[in-house]
UniProtKB/TrEMBL annotation:
UniProt entry tagged with the keyword Translocase: no
Family from the record: Belongs to the peptidase C48 family.
Keywords: Hydrolase, Protease, Thiol protease
Record-given protein name: Probable ubiquitin-like-specific protease 2A isoform X1
Lineage of the species this protein comes from: Eukaryota, Viridiplantae, Streptophyta, Embryophyta, Tracheophyta
Naturally occurring in which organism (per UniProt): Theobroma cacao
Molecular function (Gene Ontology), one example: cysteine-type peptidase activity
GO aspect biological process, one term: protein desumoylation
Pfam families listed in its UniProt record: Peptidase_C48 (PF02902)
Span of domain Ubiquitin-like protease family profile: 71-252
InterPro entries reported for this sequence: Papain-like_cys_pep_sf (IPR038765), Peptidase_C48_C (IPR003653)
């Protein structure tokens, strides 16, 4: 969907593994084994770490498995990839290219009547927006999607190479509406990592989208759009976050109400909205896309 809009841009980043240069002060993008690097550097000091450093390490470990799960190996494969859309079935790890390939095929599997109510962003747009040099370009791409005419907009988010899903609901409606409530949902399969740490970036992102569209809503009203974090299935290891985002997209498109209202929240998004068998069946479906 988004590929044709920026695929010829020679200045765009290659991949998101290098888009976040540091986390809690530690330079992670320059170290493929960042966790080993951090531990090693602390040992080299031959002194006890401070409480602040200890907290940084605890925080880092929350997302380190996902980060390490998305970094390519240091050694390059001697086997050439036959197609840019090919998907590796040898790992649960998803980089941005594999995610987009899965997403395009998943999207095409939805009925037409579903797709007319939804739009989705390229999985790299949010990360690129966070880079000042790409911000204006990303906003121009988003403007082409006419998201204020859609009921729902799916926004894959990857920060520190951990995947989560942001959903805009009824952005085209009045911010005072009670039956079609403009709000945002943030679905994260690693709740322990504190999904709300993204809220400042998300709110600035949304404000700039409104401004780029020339919308009349005032900043104070836009910043009061509810950001809801429903309970969602949690990943079973450190490599599944990308596939869980695709799983959330599939479930939400299938079950989203005609009109999203805060009064009915969380609708179908309850603790029993999934089961282990459903996750397994969906992953098998994804694997079939790569054949």
């Amino acid at each position: 969907m988004g590929n044709e809009k920026h695929g010829d841009d020679p200045a765009k980043p290659i991949d998101l593994a290098s888009s976040d240069p540091e986390y809690n002060g530690y330079p992670i993008s320059k170290h493929r084994s960042c966790w080993v690097h951090v531990i090693g550097s602390l040992k080299a000091r031959k002194k006890k770490i401070s409480k602040q450093e200890a907290q940084k390490l605890r925080d880092f470990r929350l997302t380190a498995p996902c980060f390490l799960g998305n970094i390519p190996c240091r050694q390059r494969s001697k086997r050439r990839v036959k197609s840019k859309n090919s998907i590796s079935k040898q790992t649960n790890r998803l980089d941005s290219g594999a995610f987009e390939c899965y997403m395009e095929k998943l999207w095409s599997s939805f009925p037409e009547e579903k797709r007319t109510s939804f739009a989705y962003f390229d999985c790299q747009w949010f990360a690129w927006y966070r880079k000042a040099s790409f911000r204006e370009k990303v906003l121009s791409w988003i403007k082409r999607e006419q998201i204020f005419s859609k009921k729902y907009v799916l926004v894959p988010v990857v920060c520190w190479s951990h995947w989560s899903l942001l959903i805009f609901c009824h952005f085209g409606e009045s911010l005072q509406s009670e039956t079609k409530t403009p709000c945002m949902l943030l679905l994260d399969s690693l709740e322990i990592a504190n999904p709300r740490r993204l809220e400042p970036d998300i709110r600035k992102f949304v404000l700039d989208i409104y401004r780029a569209e020339g919308r009349p809503e005032k900043k104070e009203m836009i910043y009061r759009i509810p950001l809801l974090v429903p309970k969602v299935p949690q990943q079973r290891d450190g490599e599944e976050c990308g596939k869980f985002v695709l799983y959330f997209i599939n479930l939400f498109v299938e079950g989203a109400p005609e009109n999203f209202s805060i009064e009915g929240y969380p609708y179908f998004m309850r603790k029993d909205w999934f089961d282990a068998e459903g996750v397994e069946c969906f992953c098998e479906k994804l694997d079939s896309f790569g054949k």
